[in-house]
Write a structure and sequence with these properties.
This protein is of the alpha/beta class. It is built from 15 helices and 20 strands.
Length: about 425
């Protein structure tokens, strides 16, 4: 029998990380002894546990320690973090440490150092000269990089459960079509108002259903009133938004009466062609060609937009980033400073953005398809709140909560 003593501290009772960790030890064939348990007196007080982990051999103990380390446990006497040198560009050394989206630290030269830019499914590069560990995707590794390997000297800080009675505590990871949506939207709006006043960052990730369902004016009102600080989308949203602005259709369907327009199936191509002739969306605004819509409002309000391309894109619009790795990096740059992210009616973009977000970011995924919001949570974005509803009603209700009455008349029309 081999053994190791670990420490677990923080909101380990409220967030159930203690129970989950002990269950994991037993499921993997090990055993445990709780040597010391100190429970915080108030809900926001940290609790601490010292636990001895027992296993039949070193291999089993190693697997158990690797598992529990990702749940926030640290070895009582931490070992120095290990690194190996990358021998080629775009390749990590064998046995590299695969990150979670939780705050992570490495133990080096007697102290714990926080890892910068944490996100899931990446590695940790350690810059010896700057004494700085940084999270990087595999493709960004360079020959000669010092990459963290193994599990020694690594600790993960569990997400702390909030104690305030608000959406981001009692509704965390909720995915349902039966939750009280008006209450949810009201709580989301309240938090958005707080972030705007505190100069926080709110990122919207939107699919073309925003345009198809007639939610464009509501989104524009939110942009004008300072509730959208970054917009992440694809070619389709920009294309159908500009199609609507120039021709009054989306996918060839009139947004005024819902009737298919004769020859309307060409309108999205005509929109792409017009913007490509102008040189860019911004130039189309400057030339007076584009005078309304989501893209127009982002340009005049200086809201950064990242349009990530896909293999099925028509055109695409000039601003669309067609190299997916470059697009991922652009999304990563804009999303990393986010305090809240709203992902609305776009499965692939929601998952892509969810992958690069640290767990601290409050995330809301809205889709009419229950499977979309469930999939995002299942892939590791456990901090996400899933709301099953249509895009138009969600964005419209947000606008009603946040925008002045004078702005709502156009939405009602």
């Amino acid at each position: 029998m081999v053994r190791e003593t670990i420490l677990l501290e923080g909101q380990i009772i409220n967030n159930q990380s203690l129970n989950q960790m002990l269950d994991a030890v037993l499921e993997m064939g090990g055993d445990f002894k709780i040597e010391h348990l100190e429970i915080g007196k108030r809900r926001d007080d940290p609790s601490r546990a010292r636990i001895q982990i027992l296993a039949s051999d070193k291999a089993m103990l190693s697997r158990i320690l690797e598992k529990v380390s990702k749940q926030g446990a640290t070895v009582l006497r931490p070992e120095e973090v290990r690194v190996a040198i990358a021998d080629r560009d775009g390749v990590f050394p064998e046995d590299f440490y695969s990150t979670t989206n939780l705050e992570t630290e490495i133990f080096h030269r007697g102290r714990w150092i926080a890892v910068k830019s944490i996100e899931m499914d990446c590695g940790i590069r350690y810059d010896e000269a700057r004494g700085e560990p940084e999270c990087i995707p595999i493709i960004r590794a360079k020959k000669g990089d010092r990459i963290v390997v193994g599990r020694e000297g690594i600790r993960v800080i569990p997400a702390q459960r909030q104690t305030r009675k608000e959406i981001f505590s009692f509704m965390s990871s909720a995915v349902s079509s039966e939750k009280p949506k008006k209450l949810l939207i009201s709580q989301i709006a309240k938090r958005m108002r707080e972030l705007r006043d505190l100069r926080g960052s709110i990122v919207f990730v939107c699919g073309p259903a925003i345009i198809h369902t007639g939610a464009s004016e509501s989104l524009c009102a939110l942009i004008r009133n300072g509730y959208v600080h970054v917009l992440l989308a694809g070619n389709a949203l920009a294309t159908h938004d500009i199609e609507a602005a120039l021709f009054g259709t989306s996918l060839g369907i009139s947004l005024e009466d819902g009737v298919a327009m004769e020859g309307g199936h060409r309108n999205h191509l005509r929109a792409i062609n017009a913007i490509r002739r102008a040189g860019s969306i911004k130039r189309a605004v400057e030339q007076g060609l584009l005078t309304r819509g989501v893209m127009y409002t982002c340009v005049v309000r200086n809201v950064p937009v990242v349009l990530a391309g896909s293999i099925r894109d028509d055109g695409p619009m000039p601003e669309v980033i067609t190299d997916v790795m470059e697009a991922q990096d652009a999304m990563r740059r804009e999303a990393r400073g986010a305090d809240m992210v709203l992902m609305i009616a776009t499965m692939l973009h929601s998952i892509a953005v969810g992958n690069v977000l640290p767990a601290r970011v409050q995330s809301i995924c809205v889709d009419i398809n229950h499977a979309v919001v469930t999939k995002l949570v299942d892939r590791g974005s456990f901090q996400a709140i899933g709301i099953v509803t249509d895009a138009e009603s969600f964005v419209r209700e947000l606008a009603y909560e946040l925008c002045p009455e004078s702005e709502l008349e156009e939405i009602r029309e």
